[in-house]
């Protein structure tokens, strides 16, 4: 049974070395084909083409954005058209937050060797112009701006500090955001500094914004940072990297299955490391919809 490896060309892995390792150490995955893509859109297209050709095991090499694009290749108009196929992950991106959460300290080699496959939840987002899928998280407010800012940082900035440094640089000119929302049928207007909606355990390269063992719970976990003075926000930023953030008085934590956002002007939404413009967005959970190696 053919296994196809879809690789982000910006992956931090030597693909020739990876191919030799997979052939040598994982004979159960043979025959093996590695496809190096040129951009995120190709990841989705190549994944879908392989699945249409009958491939049952797709392994994606890259970060959270690449994994999300590969997952999109399973879906058409909201339905997983390949429910018997499985997705494996070889971390090769900057943050690798979703893999960090599912691995529980194990290496990707240990996960593939174990061969355990589990049906997990995936998030779906519908905006005016597109339909997106995400495994790990989405964010709004200053967090979405920070993701764009991180891409312009000098390489000497440590990856573990990139979110903090980017946030500090954005705060002088960014103010709180207000949106009309509908959470599981309840309408309101919400104001916030940042809003994180998670399926995975980590976001932003190690921030502990999600829950453990939330992969197949059937709900999102939400953390919203309330409007507070910027000085107080800066003091509390280090809490994002600890479980303490969930108990902080400056955040609201919720669980829900769907949320809709409505903005009076174009706003920014970050989805697994990619930025998107929206005026309305509907976010829903698709429970236990896609199989992954865990």
The CATH topology of the largest domain is what? Tumour Suppressor Smad4
CATH class of the largest domain reads Mainly Beta
Low-confidence stretches: none
Mean pLDDT: 89
- SSE order, one letter for each helix or strand: EHEHEHEEEHHEEEHHEEEEHEEE
Overall form: globular
Residue fraction in strands:
35-45%
What's the count of strands? 16
What is the distance, rounded to the nearest whole angstrom, between the alpha carbons of the first and last residues?
20 Å
Structural class determined from secondary elements: alpha+beta
Largest sheet geometry: 14 strands, mixed
Number of helices: 8
* Number of separate structural domains: 2
Describe the structure.
The chain is α+β, with helices and mostly antiparallel strands. It has two domains: 91 residues, 3-Layer(aba) Sandwich (Rossmann fold); 156 residues, Tumour Suppressor Smad4. Helix content is 24%, strand content 38%. The longest helix has 13 residues. The chain is globular.
């Amino acid at each position: 049974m053919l296994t196809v490896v879809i690789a982000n060309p910006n992956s931090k892995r030597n693909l020739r070395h990876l191919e030799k390792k997979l052939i040598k150490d994982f004979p159960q995955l043979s025959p093996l084909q590695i496809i190096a893509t040129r951009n995120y859109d190709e990841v989705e297209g190549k994944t879908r083409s392989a699945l249409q050709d009958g491939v049952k095991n797709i392994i994606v090499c890259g970060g959270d954005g690449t994994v999300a694009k590969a997952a999109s290749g399973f879906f058409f108009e909201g339905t997983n058209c390949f429910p018997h196929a499985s997705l494996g992950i070889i971390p090769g991106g900057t943050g690798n937050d979703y893999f960090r959460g599912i691995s529980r300290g194990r290496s990707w080699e240990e996960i593939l060797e174990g061969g355990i496959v589990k049906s997990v939840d995936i998030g779906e987002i519908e905006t005016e112009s597109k339909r997106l899928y995400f495994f790990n998280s989405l964010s709004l407010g200053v967090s979405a701006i920070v993701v764009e800012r991180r891409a312009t940082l000098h390489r000497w900035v440590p990856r573990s500090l990139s979110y903090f440094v980017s946030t500090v640089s954005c705060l002088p000119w960014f103010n709180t955001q207000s949106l009309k929302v509908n959470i599981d049928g309840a309408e309101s207007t919400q104001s916030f500094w940042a809003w994180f909606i998670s399926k995975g355990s980590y976001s932003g390269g190690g921030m502990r914004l999600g829950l453990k063992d939330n992969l197949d719970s059937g709900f999102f976990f939400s953390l919203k940072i309330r409007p507070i003075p910027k000085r107080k926000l800066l003091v509390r930023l280090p809490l994002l990297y600890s479980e303490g953030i969930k108990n902080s008085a400056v955040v609201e934590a919720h669980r829900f299955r769907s949320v809709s956002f409505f903005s009076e002007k174009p706003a920014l939404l970050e989805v697994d490391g990619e930025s998107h413009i929206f005026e309305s967005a509907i976010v829903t959970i698709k429970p236990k919809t896609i199989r992954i190696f865990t």
